[in-house]
From TrEMBL:
Domain EthD: 11-96
Pfam families: EthD (PF07110)
Family statement: Belongs to the tpcK family.
Domain of life: Eukaryota
Protein name: EthD domain-containing protein
GO molecular function terms attached to this record: oxidoreductase activity
InterPro entries, A to Z: EthD_dom
Transmembrane segments: none
Length: 278
């Protein structure tokens, strides 16, 4: 499962200071947890394109908001994440390093049936692609939440996903894990994250492009149709589009035998901690 955090910078920080705190300090701290404890499977960061000196994309399918960063952390399970957040070590370290203002939190599962991968890696290494790659994130918040209409939303989103996969873009759908208010509070109370920011329905679509030029070309060709499709099933007042750069701070290639074995042991202990409310 994934924890995805969309954030703005603290007003006391300049763009350069925020980028340093996010991309260097926070990345090093999180990478250390991933290496030493083995419970973070992947950590991906993105900074808004203007923040890294790139022009904004046009023809986005939904309105773009003011924002700064995207962080996606993949965990073995929701229980491991909750157990990790409840430890005193985490809470002390998180309290000492506050540099961002989260405005939306997603707890998701990746929809394996709606993945279209088209990044060409035959002549370009993945490391080189990551230096120029662009991530487009479209948050998908349903118009309504009643049972019947929620079923309709799921059907419309699934049809939309099938159509997007046919366009040839690298596309992944992330669907929120249903949580009630009590569970959200248990996970995030005592952390820098306000449980009221957790998105409780829908999720987000992710488009990956090898370069910003590829993203611009795709949006020039398909942006209007994408917008028309989204307008059929999303709440446009609360669903938005964001464009980020793409840096993998910790990934599969960084996980060795130590991280795999120790991660299983630590993860099991954290699951027990959550189950018994220790």
């Amino acid at each position: 499962m994934q924890l995805t955090i969309l954030s703005d910078k603290l007003p006391t920080l300049s763009e350069t200071q925020f980028a340093h705190e996010f991309r260097t300090v926070h990345a090093q701290q999180t990478r250390a947890i991933a290496i030493n404890l083995g419970i973070i499977l992947k950590y991906v960061q993105g900074l808004a394109l203007p923040t890294v000196g790139r022009p904004k994309l046009i023809n986005l399918p939904l309105e773009e908001l003011q924002y700064r960063s995207f962080a996606q952390l993949t965990w073995p399970s929701l229980e491991v994440l909750q157990g990790s957040f409840s430890t005193e070590d985490y809470r002390q370290s998180a309290a000492k390093h506050q540099f961002a203002r989260p405005f939306q939190l997603f707890l998701t599962e990746r929809d394996e049936s709606s993945i279209s991968a088209s990044l060409n890696t035959s002549s370009t290494t993945l490391t080189e692609i990551e230096k120029t790659a662009t991530r487009l994130v479209v948050t998908v918040i349903p118009k309504t939440l009643s049972d019947n209409e929620n079923t309709k939303f799921e059907e419309q989103w699934s049809r939309h996903a099938q159509w997007v996969c046919s366009l040839g873009a690298s596309y992944t759908r992330y669907r929120v894990i249903p949580l009630d208010e009590t569970r959200s509070r248990k996970i995030f109370d005592g952390t820098p994250f306000d449980p009221r920011l957790v998105v409780t329905a829908g999720g987000y679509d992710e488009f990956m492009f090898q370069s910003q030029e590829n993203a611009a070309q795709f949006l020039a060709e398909h942006g209007p149709q994408l917008r028309s499709s989204y307008l059929e099933f999303v709440d446009i007042d609360h669903s938005h589009a964001y464009a980020f750069d793409h840096v993998v701070q910790f990934g599969t290639e960084d996980r060795g035998t130590w991280q795999t074995i120790f991660g299983l042991l630590v993860g099991s202990a954290l699951r027990v901690k959550v189950f018994f409310g220790i």
